[in-house]
Write a structure and sequence with these properties.
four-stranded antiparallel beta sheet, 54% strand, globular
Length: 115
Protein backbone atom coordinates (compact mmCIF):
# COMPACT_ATOMS: atom_id res chain seq x y z
CA UNK A 1 0.00 0.00 0.00
CA UNK A 2 1.39 3.39 -1.00
CA UNK A 3 1.04 6.27 1.46
CA UNK A 4 1.04 9.92 0.49
CA UNK A 5 1.86 12.26 3.38
CA UNK A 6 1.00 15.92 2.88
CA UNK A 7 2.11 18.97 4.81
CA UNK A 8 2.12 22.75 4.55
CA UNK A 9 -1.51 23.84 4.67
CA UNK A 10 -2.81 26.64 6.85
CA UNK A 11 -4.35 30.08 7.00
CA UNK A 12 -3.02 32.87 4.78
CA UNK A 13 -4.19 36.34 3.83
CA UNK A 14 -5.27 37.15 0.27
CA UNK A 15 -2.22 37.81 -1.87
CA UNK A 16 -0.07 35.59 0.30
CA UNK A 17 1.81 32.39 -0.45
CA UNK A 18 1.90 28.82 0.81
CA UNK A 19 3.91 25.75 -0.15
CA UNK A 20 2.46 22.27 0.09
CA UNK A 21 4.54 19.11 0.14
CA UNK A 22 3.62 15.49 -0.43
CA UNK A 23 5.97 12.55 0.02
CA UNK A 24 5.12 9.17 -1.49
CA UNK A 25 6.17 5.93 0.20
CA UNK A 26 7.12 4.34 -3.10
CA UNK A 27 10.14 4.29 -5.31
CA UNK A 28 10.54 7.20 -7.66
CA UNK A 29 11.10 4.83 -10.56
CA UNK A 30 7.65 3.29 -10.13
CA UNK A 31 5.86 6.64 -9.61
CA UNK A 32 4.36 7.94 -12.80
CA UNK A 33 2.27 11.10 -12.34
CA UNK A 34 2.07 13.19 -9.18
CA UNK A 35 -0.17 16.14 -8.59
CA UNK A 36 -2.74 18.04 -6.61
CA UNK A 37 -6.50 18.27 -6.53
CA UNK A 38 -8.70 20.43 -4.31
CA UNK A 39 -12.23 20.36 -2.97
CA UNK A 40 -14.04 23.40 -1.67
CA UNK A 41 -17.12 23.09 0.58
CA UNK A 42 -20.15 22.05 -1.45
CA UNK A 43 -18.14 21.56 -4.62
CA UNK A 44 -16.67 18.64 -6.50
CA UNK A 45 -13.01 17.76 -6.28
CA UNK A 46 -11.12 19.47 -9.11
CA UNK A 47 -7.70 19.25 -10.66
CA UNK A 48 -5.11 21.82 -9.64
CA UNK A 49 -2.15 20.47 -11.58
CA UNK A 50 0.04 17.49 -12.31
CA UNK A 51 3.64 16.68 -13.10
CA UNK A 52 4.87 13.62 -14.95
CA UNK A 53 7.99 11.59 -14.24
CA UNK A 54 9.59 13.45 -17.13
CA UNK A 55 8.80 16.82 -15.60
CA UNK A 56 5.93 17.92 -17.83
CA UNK A 57 3.34 19.98 -15.99
CA UNK A 58 -0.34 20.68 -16.49
CA UNK A 59 -2.43 23.26 -14.61
CA UNK A 60 -6.05 24.24 -14.23
CA UNK A 61 -6.78 27.57 -15.91
CA UNK A 62 -7.79 29.06 -12.56
CA UNK A 63 -4.27 28.66 -11.12
CA UNK A 64 -2.04 29.19 -14.16
CA UNK A 65 0.59 31.83 -13.50
CA UNK A 66 0.04 31.68 -9.74
CA UNK A 67 0.75 28.06 -8.77
CA UNK A 68 3.82 25.98 -9.61
CA UNK A 69 4.24 22.22 -9.26
CA UNK A 70 7.69 20.73 -8.87
CA UNK A 71 9.07 17.33 -7.98
CA UNK A 72 12.08 16.02 -6.06
CA UNK A 73 12.61 12.58 -7.55
CA UNK A 74 15.30 11.64 -5.03
CA UNK A 75 12.78 12.07 -2.19
CA UNK A 76 9.77 11.13 -4.34
CA UNK A 77 8.12 14.33 -3.17
CA UNK A 78 5.87 16.72 -5.04
CA UNK A 79 5.50 20.38 -4.13
CA UNK A 80 2.81 22.95 -4.83
CA UNK A 81 3.97 26.56 -4.57
CA UNK A 82 0.93 28.80 -4.34
CA UNK A 83 1.37 32.54 -4.83
CA UNK A 84 -1.11 35.42 -5.08
CA UNK A 85 -3.66 33.37 -3.20
CA UNK A 86 -7.33 34.33 -3.44
CA UNK A 87 -10.26 33.53 -1.14
CA UNK A 88 -11.60 31.23 -3.85
CA UNK A 89 -8.50 29.07 -3.46
CA UNK A 90 -9.81 28.01 -0.05
CA UNK A 91 -10.23 24.24 -0.10
CA UNK A 92 -8.88 20.94 1.11
CA UNK A 93 -5.93 20.11 -1.11
CA UNK A 94 -5.29 16.46 -1.91
CA UNK A 95 -2.07 14.96 -3.19
CA UNK A 96 -2.45 12.36 -5.92
CA UNK A 97 0.03 9.91 -7.40
CA UNK A 98 0.00 6.99 -9.75
CA UNK A 99 2.39 4.22 -8.79
CA UNK A 100 2.79 1.46 -11.34
CA UNK A 101 -0.24 3.15 -12.97
CA UNK A 102 -2.47 2.67 -9.92
CA UNK A 103 -3.90 5.81 -8.30
CA UNK A 104 -3.45 6.85 -4.66
CA UNK A 105 -4.68 9.81 -2.62
CA UNK A 106 -3.32 11.67 0.36
CA UNK A 107 -5.43 12.52 3.39
CA UNK A 108 -5.83 16.16 2.44
CA UNK A 109 -4.60 19.42 3.93
CA UNK A 110 -6.72 22.51 4.55
CA UNK A 111 -5.81 25.79 2.87
CA UNK A 112 -7.79 28.82 3.98
CA UNK A 113 -7.33 32.22 2.33
CA UNK A 114 -8.96 34.92 4.42
CA UNK A 115 -8.26 38.31 5.91
Amino acid sequence: QVRLVESGGGLVQPGGSLRLSCEASASSSSTNVMGWYRQAPGKQRELVGTITSGGSTNYADSVKGRFTISRDKAKNTVFLQMNSLKPEDTAVYYCYATVSWRGYWGQGTQVTVSS
